From TrEMBL:
<dbReference type="InterPro" id="IPR020097">
    <property type="entry name" value="PsdUridine_synth_TruA_a/b_dom"/>
</dbReference>
<keyword id="KW-0819">tRNA processing</keyword>
<comment type="function">
    <text>Formation of pseudouridine at positions 38, 39 and 40 in the anticodon stem and loop of transfer RNAs.</text>
</comment>
<dbReference type="InterPro" id="IPR020095">
    <property type="entry name" value="PsdUridine_synth_TruA_C"/>
</dbReference>
<feature type="domain" description="Pseudouridine synthase I TruA alpha/beta">
    <location>
        <begin position="145"/>
        <end position="250"/>
    </location>
</feature>
<dbReference type="GO" id="GO:0160147">
    <property type="term" value="F:tRNA pseudouridine(38-40) synthase activity"/>
</dbReference>
<feature type="domain" description="Pseudouridine synthase I TruA alpha/beta">
    <location>
        <begin position="10"/>
        <end position="104"/>
    </location>
</feature>
<dbReference type="InterPro" id="IPR020094">
    <property type="entry name" value="TruA/RsuA/RluB/E/F_N"/>
</dbReference>
<comment type="subunit">
    <text>Homodimer.</text>
</comment>
<dbReference type="Pfam" id="PF01416">
    <property type="entry name" value="PseudoU_synth_1"/>
</dbReference>
<comment type="similarity">
    <text>Belongs to the tRNA pseudouridine synthase TruA family.</text>
</comment>
<protein>
    <recommendedName>
        <fullName>tRNA pseudouridine synthase A</fullName>
        <ecNumber>5.4.99.12</ecNumber>
    </recommendedName>
</protein>
<feature type="binding site">
    <location>
        <position position="111"/>
    </location>
    <ligand>
        <name>substrate</name>
    </ligand>
</feature>
<keyword id="KW-0413">Isomerase</keyword>
<dbReference type="InterPro" id="IPR020103">
    <property type="entry name" value="PsdUridine_synth_cat_dom_sf"/>
</dbReference>
<feature type="active site" description="Nucleophile">
    <location>
        <position position="52"/>
    </location>
</feature>
<dbReference type="InterPro" id="IPR001406">
    <property type="entry name" value="PsdUridine_synth_TruA"/>
</dbReference>
Length: 257
């Protein structure tokens, strides 16, 4: 049996999330079905993170076990052929040791959230960004985000359905940048941590949007955090602007590419 690491890109719109569903399409189900075209199944793959319905990925990582001695490039090509027409692509593939695990070997997750500020409906980025019709104060949002950096009890920013054993996490970075273009001004939030709670990123971005439009002060973010109460959280933003951007490991299984 040979273990392979897969780096995966997908558009989350058509899926009920990453995790296999009995009666709904999922990213995991699409990839496992493609694997079954290459070797008799059943196949069960494990991922670095379980993204929710509508959430996208630029650098999700999963692993699979196969009997055949596949050359990684050929396996990537074969999977991409059988994944058509689903909006899922294997962008890298590598052999890994039998004890390597996409989830448990990971030491960092990076998320990207895209927010577009314009009144006209988005066309090219429909389903790929969160659109708000007003301008936001980036400096105020950065000041609010600064209260969240470090080791904290993130109960306020945790879904009631979160299954994590503890709400205590270390948030390593929240970077907010603005890009102006013909399609409108876009804010990009980049969050980095070893692991995240369920809905943590969307809860944080939704809360910071409230700061950006002046409904909250940056200090209100600190008060919400120390309350350790889900009711103190700002609105949870929609999933379509969220991307699992990258997953970090002690040694990159895909090498420098």
């Amino acid at each position: 049996m040979q273990r392979f690491a897969l780096r995966i890109e997908y558009h989350g719109g058509p899926f009920a999330g990453w995790q296999r569903q009995r009666d709904q399409p999922s990213v995991q189900g699409a990839i496992e079905a493609a694997l079954a075209k290459l070797e008799p199944g059943p196949h069960t793959i494990a991922a670095a993170g379980r993204t929710d319905a509508g959430v996208h990925a630029l650098g999700q990582v999963a692993h699979c076990d196969l009997e055949k001695e596949w050359e990684p490039f050929r396996l990537m090509e074969a999977l991409n052929y059988h994944l058509k027409p689903a909006p899922v692509a294997i962008t890298a593939c590598a052999r890994v040791e039998s004890d390597w695990h996409a989830r448990f070997s990971a030491v960092e997750r990076r998320y990207l959230f895209r927010l577009v500020m314009r009144r006209a409906p988005v066309t090219h980025d429909k389903g790929l960004v969160w659109q708000v019709p007003h301008d936001l104060d980036v400096e105020a949002m950065r000041a609010g985000a600064a209260h969240l950096i470090g080791l904290h009890d993130f109960t306020t920013f945790r879904s009631a359905m979160c299954q994590s054993a503890s709400p205590v996490k270390t948030l390593d970075a929240v970077e907010i940048t603005r890009q102006d273009g013909p399609g409108g001004a876009e804010l990009r939030f980049r969050l980095r941590a070893r692991s995240f709670l369920h809905n943590q990123v969307r809860s944080i971005v939704g809360t910071l949007e409230r700061v950006g439009r002046g409904a909250w002060t940056p200090e209100d973010v600190r008060r919400a955090l120390v309350a350790a109460d889900r009711a103190a959280c700002g609105p949870v933003c929609p999933p379509e602007g969220l991307y699992l951007d990258a997953v970090g490991y002690p040694a990159d299984p895909f090498g420098a590419d």
